[in-house]
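ok so heres the complex, four chains, lmk if somethin looks off
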Amino acid sequence: MPSSTPASPPDRDAAALPGRQREARANDTAILVAARAVFAAQGHGAAMSDVAREAGVGVGSVYRRYPTKEALVEALHTHGVQEAARLARRVADEVAPGAVVRFVACQISTATGPLLRPTGATTPIPPDLARASDELHEALETLVAQDVRAGVVPAGLTAADVMQLLLHLRPTLPLPRAQADALHLRYLDLVDAGMRAQASAGVVLEGGPAWDEWVGTWHD
Amino acid sequence: MPSSTPASPPDRDAAALPGRQREARANDTAILVAARAVFAAQGHGAAMSDVAREAGVGVGSVYRRYPTKEALVEALHTHGVQEAARLARRVADEVAPGAVVRFVACQISTATGPLLRPTGATTPIPPDLARASDELHEALETLVAQDVRAGVVPAGLTAADVMQLLLHLRPTLPLPRAQADALHLRYLDLVDAGMRAQASAGVVLEGGPAWDEWVGTWHD
DNA sequence: ATCGGAACGGAACATCCGTTCCGATTCACT
DNA sequence: AGTGAATCGGAACGGATGTTCCGTTCCGAT
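and the predicted structre for the whole thing:
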């Protein structure tokens, strides 16, 4: 019995686990991957049975991991925010002008479908998500501060503005991926030009959205 | 009997119609208005019974006008495109620099909720919509041409780009209307600055989206 | 005043989907 | 091998929602 490790959340690497639990763990990630794909393709309205089929398991197995559909969506959401936070941190570490735009561009070409939470999800924000959100927030602040100093984005730009940008540049059209990406990059160029213009004109933005508005209020 | 006028689509003004049909017509617009309000508030997932209740009629009456929910949504969509076309035409007639941004700004503060078609609506595009779309297209081209001449938007900008802009500036957050509008205007400023910068830098955009991509491919 | 039919409202129906439940299956341990 | 517990898959349940159907209401013509 694994009473030696008191880690209540079973530790990361599932490589070596008592036989049966490995399968469970494998199923777990399979479900996550499948859910991401299905929800990306069909939106959050997709049926749980579709997710189960895509993952090659029964619906029962899905519900064993995630007590409800909303929980599954939320897990996906948290995961997405964590990834975004990692990316932001990495870009911030490069310390080069244009970090904001670079982050957004990367995020666009990376993020698979909607990592957002459906409206009306009034569930209290789970700790994991809150933590990931904080990390993302901090990393974005760094990013923005760097670019403000570099003079490529106007002062007063907030981390929430960047999220807004990201939301707007999310695939919203049933277009082939490549085409959608091209559109978004074209659009991002525009915004980049705008931010640089405002920055060099000495514009100071005001009344930007607050970060707190963003946590847990996304939808698709 | 009204056999004198062969107009198969009963003419516009419903003011004077044989008694009972007036009520029908009144109900018809009531349904449209109600549907717009309900769908705007709850998204296209709202129940038909809600629309009926909001309109103060029974579900049966809704289904008499619109054989299916999709038909109702489509009617709304067509209506929205028609309004957008009218607005675009009006702005174009003013012939003043900044027409594109002005159009988008107006459209943002005007358009109530989603006037877009749900994904996967594979129904053939109805003639009304096709016509409205053509009118919108033409008006936007005029708008863009004016602004390109005025040097406030870069050459190569297409009518479809403007639609893209519009789509991005659509309310996507469950924020109070005023707040959302403020955000969008802030964002529009950015894009405006970007377009002006690109224009005066002599940038010529390429590979813009084609208009045809846009007709009938919107969703919410 | 009476009649016919157009329009109405809402109960009833069918379907879809989230969720629950349970018998079958599989693995660890003896 | 045999046993038991954990896990699995999917049928069954319940609620919500799109759609149909029909008895009722109301207006205009006779």
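quick notes: Residues 20-21, 23-24, 27, 49, 52, 57-61, 64 of chain A lie near DNA strand D (CB under 10 Å from a C1'). thats all i got rn
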